[in-house]
């Protein structure tokens, strides 16, 4: 008994929301296989409801009612023992996850074996219906998608729950700020790090410091625990740090406590680009990355703070289409420092010769002594 459930049409009074298949070939096929055939097909093109907005068909509560009427009609025509198999033709961009769950549960309850045929796409809620079947048959361009639950809000209706989680994650701070804002030693240390590693501001220092602290906290927690799960987590943590180059092979969880903020800053993409000689300065390395000139495994990376794995370090390069890929580009040529010319010693100024000073005897010159002696002789006379 092949039936076609058209989700875009609403049932009128005393009328089923589906129509029986009139194709004699399909009817004959269903009777030979002794199966019930159901088509859940949403129109591919949207419905224009205003000059600026469109709506797409999706799995909602109306589809739940349609499936219920379909099952009632099937139970009237076929006893439950004779309706073992259901061939389901499914094409839908998805919909409300709760409605998809109800439909899947109802179909599983009434049929022992469900085979789902997906000609093109079964996304989100339709994926949930598909994976509830016993077998899925797909073509070359057929595809499923992750199940994306929705959240209902009165102002915007049903929206993706993942979008809400991402919005909350962006609102949360991803680093801890200093507990005391005016510590001269810390401020000077951060200023030196910003200058040495070409950071945008001190928040990047705080992010790296928080990352180092998180590694240390994990090490302390795992050292205190002695369970099989803690050993697995310890192995995963050490493998990650080996891949990042923050620990050497053979070092253990105790060595993790020695990781400093400088160790993490050395693994940033900006630092790697500068040390590989792709930029003349650490600040120019940041500019090349943000301007989409740097590629990692032939994939453009625009985040200077990306932590480069040891296996990826040799694959950091310019993208082939970048003009900077040419080693003779003016921005890449490092000018050698020219030796400063020796400064000539200033010539001594030739001035007038100084007259030799007359010697003073007893604090007075000989001429003054003669005058004073003559004056004394006149007084005596």
The number of domains: 3
Give the overall shape, derived from the CA principal axes.
elongated
Give the radius of gyration: 42 Å
- As residue ranges, the low-confidence spans are 3-16
Amino-to-carboxy terminus distance: 167 Å
Q: Outline the biggest β-sheet.
A: 6 strands, mixed
Q: Judging by the overall fold, what is the CATH architecture of the largest domain?
A: Alpha-Beta Complex
Q: Report the order of strands and helices.
A: EEHEEEHEHEEHEEEEHHHHHHHEEEH
Summed up, the helix count is 12
Strand fraction = 5-15%
Q: What structural class do you assign from the helix and strand content? A: alpha/beta
Q: What is the fold named in CATH at topology level of the largest domain?
A: 2-enoyl-CoA Hydratase, Chain A, domain 1
Strand order of the biggest β-sheet: 2-1-3-6-7-9
* Overall pLDDT confidence: 83
| Strand runs, count | 15
Describe the protein's topology.
Blueprint: E1 2-6, E2 18-20, H1 24-33, E3 35-41, E4 47-48, E5 54-55, H2 61-77, E6 85-91, H3 97-110, E7 113-118, E8 121-122, H4 125-131, E9 135-138, E10 143-144, E11 150-153, E12 157-160, H5 161-171, H6 184-197, H7 202-224, H8 228-244, H9 261-265, H10 269-275, H11 282-290, E13 294-296, E14 299-300, E15 316-318, H12 366-380
Parallel strand pairs: 1-3, 3-6, 6-7, 7-9, 8-10
Antiparallel strand pairs: 1-2, 4-5, 11-12, 13-14, 13-15
Helix pairs in contact: 2-3, 3-4, 7-8, 10-11
Tell me what the structure shows.
This protein is an alpha/beta fold and 381 residues long. It has three domains: 2-155, 2-enoyl-CoA Hydratase, Chain A, domain 1, CATH 3.90.226; 181-261, no CATH class; 268-334, Structural Genomics Hypothetical 15.5 Kd Protein In mrcA-pckA Intergenic Region, Chain A (Roll), CATH 3.10.290.10. Helix content is 39%, strand content 15%. The chain has twelve helices and 15 strands. It has helices spanning 24-33, 61-77, 97-110, 125-131, 161-171, 184-197, 202-224, 228-244, 261-265, 269-275, 282-290, 366-380, and strands at residues 2-6, 18-20, 35-41, 47-48, 54-55, 85-91, 113-118, 121-122, 135-138, 143-144, 150-153, 157-160, 294-296, 299-300, 316-318. The strands form five sheets. Strands 2-1-3-6-7-9 form a six-stranded mixed β-sheet, sandwiched between helices. A three-stranded antiparallel β-sheet has the order 14-13-15. It is elongated and about 155 Å long. Residues 3-16 have low confidence and may be disordered.
């Amino acid at each position: 008994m092949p039936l076609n459930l058209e989700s875009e049409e609403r049932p009128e009074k005393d009328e089923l929301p589906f129509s029986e298949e009139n194709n004699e070939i399909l009817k004959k096929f269903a009777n030979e296989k002794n199966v019930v055939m159901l088509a859940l097909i949403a129109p591919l093109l949207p419905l224009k409801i205003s000059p600026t907005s469109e709506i797409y068909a999706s799995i909602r509560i109306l589809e739940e009612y349609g499936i219920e009427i379909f099952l009632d009609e099937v139970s009237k025509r076929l006893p439950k023992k004779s309706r073992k198999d259901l061939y389901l033709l499914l094409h839908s961009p998805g919909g409300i996850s709760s409605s998809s769950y109800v439909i899947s549960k109802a179909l599983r309850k009434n049929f022992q074996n469900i085979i789902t045929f997906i000609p093109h796409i079964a996304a989100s809620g339709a994926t949930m219906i598909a994976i509830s079947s016993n077998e899925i048959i797909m073509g070359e361009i057929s595809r499923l998608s992750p199940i994306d639950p929705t959240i209902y809000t009165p102002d915007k209706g049903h929206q993706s729950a993942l979008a809400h989680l991402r919005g909350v994650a962006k609102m949360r701070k991803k680093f801890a700020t200093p507990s005391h804002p005016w510590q001269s030693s810390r401020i000077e240390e951060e200023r030196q790090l910003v200058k040495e590693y070409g950071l945008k501001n001190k928040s990047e220092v705080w992010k790296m410091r928080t990352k180092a602290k998180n590694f240390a906290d994990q090490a302390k927690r795992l050292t205190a625990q002695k369970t099989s799960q803690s050993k697995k987590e310890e192995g995963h943590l050490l493998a990650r740090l080996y891949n990042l180059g923050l620990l050497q092979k053979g070092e253990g969880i105790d060595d993790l406590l020695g990781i400093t903020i400088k160790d993490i800053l050395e693994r940033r993409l900006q630092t790697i680009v500068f040390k590989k000689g792709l930029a003349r300065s650490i600040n120019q390395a940041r500019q090349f990355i943000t301007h989409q000139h740097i590629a990692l495994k032939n994939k453009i990376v625009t985040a200077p703070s990306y932590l480069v794995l040891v296996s990826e370090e040799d694959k950091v390069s310019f993208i082939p289409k970048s003009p900077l890929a040419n080693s003779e580009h003016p921005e890449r040529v490092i000018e050698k420092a020219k030796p400063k010319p020796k400064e000539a010693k200033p010539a001594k100024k030739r001035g007038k010769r100084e007259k030799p000073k007359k010697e003073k005897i007893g604090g007075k010159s000989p001429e003054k002594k003669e005058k004073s002696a003559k004056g004394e002789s006149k007084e005596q006379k």
